[in-house]
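Known limitations

Files may contain more than one protein. Parsers should not assume a single record per file. Below, a two-record file is shown to illustrate correct handling: read the sequence, read the token line, then continue until end of file.
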Amino acid sequence: MKLHSHNLVEHKYTDILYELRPAKDFEGNEVEGLYNAWIMLNNPSQYNSYTTKAVKEIILAMREASNDRSVVAVVFTAVGDKAFCTGGNTKEYAEYYAGNPQEYKQYMRLFNDMVSSILMNDKPVICRANGMRIGGGQEIGMACDFTIAQDLAKFGQAGPKHGSAPDGGSTDFLHLFVGVELAMLSCTVCDPWSAHEALRHGLLTEVVPALKVNGEYINNPMVRTDRWISKKTSEIIYGLAKKGEHLAKGKELFKSGEVDLKLLDEAVDKMCTKLMMTFPNCLSKTINSIRKKKLEHWDRNKESNRDWLALNMMTEAKAGFKAFNDGPKGKREVDFVKLRQMLAEGLEWNDEIHKAISPQYQNTEV
């Protein structure tokens, strides 16, 4: 019998990678006729930030993997070992969407559809956090059903520091993982968590080492916590080190090693195998039942958040994204104090305020 295709369109991917990798049994043998679909962001030079075109392709790829009868699970990840995703492409934001709310509203329709395509996938979706997961990257990562991370990765938000609010999923999802207080902390002040902190808070499924020193894996040497660091790593770093020296020693040790994601891939493969060893419809129903908790918030808020995020492109987002894109290295945030002072005086938001607070204009007359 010839089977119908339920894909919306047939598509050749250019901005992301889409691969079918053979499913494996618990002994590591390939299983005939079954696969895991790997959907990979492919923009490592910009920390795998997603462009408008990439967002479209992720939607199509999620739909394709969902419809593929031979696919057991979806692995959502990225190229390289520095970043899973840092959110939207700030160059595109600054040069096209800033000050252009009607266009950004159209873009946010695509973004919302990308998140929904993860939450509505008929297959379990695993976020393979191969590096930092920040901003919108954190949001699409939390839409996934599981996250397995390498322990050099960091997790967090960027919105209020760069002119936005984390309303692409974090204000809907994060409290379900870590509780209201920690969600409030992360979404407002934007301090990142290490992978070990994120695991302890309940954000991740599993964390594995990625740094090899002298041929052996060690835990992240820049994270000092007895609970999550091996005895061997602790002895190497801390020894007789004085208080405050651990970070410097950790950085030195990091430079002497190499990043190898073999253990991450093994952990992801193992999770895919565990999922394969279940009744597929029972698995799908269970996943969808648990996803409802995310969808209750996401479906309630996504359209009003889209409207606000679009209008915000006229004011704070315009300043924040342009500062990040155009500001000098090491100074890519606006002058928050000056902004608050000017607004406290009752000044309207205009180009004068924008130039007064933006680092790229600091050596020019306003």
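...continuing to the second record:
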Amino acid sequence: MALRNLENCVQMLVVDDDPLILRTILGLLSELPVRVITADNIAQARSQILENSEFGIILCDHLLPDGAGVDFIREIRTRYPSAVRILMTGAYDREVTLQAINSGEIYRFLVKPFTNEELVTIVLQSLDRFHLQQENARLQQQLALQNEELRVMNQKLENRVELEVEKSQNLAIETGNWRRACQNLVDLCLEIMQRLDTPLFKHSQRVSRLAVALARDMGYEEEMLDRIELAASLHDISLLGVTPVLQASQRELQTIKAPLDKDHIMGHPEISAALVKFLPVPEVMQLILEHHEYYDGSGYPRNLAGEQISMLGHILIVADAYDEQKKRDFALQNMEMNAGKLYHPEVVRGLIRLLGNKDFKLQFDRPVLLSELKSGMKLATSVYTASGMLLVKQGQILTDSIISKLHLHDSGNMISQGIYVQTDS
């Protein structure tokens, strides 16, 4: 038996009871990349299968001393399903071999007597088929491994997505809690302003309404409107405790005689900005810092000019200056006269357009006496007792019953705060 030790050879089992045919096959295949192992009957073939590793090609005679070759091939098909099976047969066995081919049990059959070329050709074809099957099996195994890797990666990705979703949900909850906490602080600041300095609080409210309306009319989106509303509501918070006369001098610094008073007024934008640093929106602090700057750079505290001031800052400047004017008709005329000098021209044009719109109503608040309250009025400020207990909430539409309640309380414990109701410009 001739053995070849080629690195890439395919092991081949040849079963035939004719020694001459075996020697012939060994000689013809000696130059091919196959390692031929022979057996002269089915029993010996079974032994070779048990003793050796996998066979890639099995060439078996049909008529053997101890059985039919086609039955043996059918028997080992389950053991080596990937082996290329060839049946040698006489011409009279053609019908049997054709049935074996059709059932998928053999790949080729070799009719005796065969030529050398026929044998070599069939073996070479069998080698190609075996390598093709091996490559297909390798690719399928690789595909299975890649599919498993993909499954594992997908599972990891799903787990990561679930984790990120959970983190995102937790973050949303934390963000919501933080926003509510910030809003509570803002509400607390506004309530303190309302209780300690109602006129200052009302000024901030009016500036906020006008600034938001002006920004909306100029095309800003809700996020920007929220920022300017916050900034306008808190822009003067550091003026709590400052006398009304000194507050009225914010735009007429030359009238302030005491240096400390002047420093306090000129520094109040920075102090107000510092007081609201708890807000997670730096732009709000920036707008508060800008609300006393002027277009030509003559404002304070940093003498910013033109594009150094944000457009929302210019809007807040105009809204604040407009509300500080005592006479509304003169206020708009004054804004127009100073467009391009103190105020951004585009913002002034926006203000003129907004106030000229018949569908726009800017609500203002006016102080009233308790005796002037009438059913249908809308409270612009909450009303508290001297001890701080809420009597009537801001925004409440007054009824005769509510007004009677206020009078009754005032008769026993005088209401000392100012009372404001809403009115339209």
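Parsers that stop after the first record will miss the second one. For reference, the second record is described as follows. Residues 116-196 form the longest helix (81 residues).
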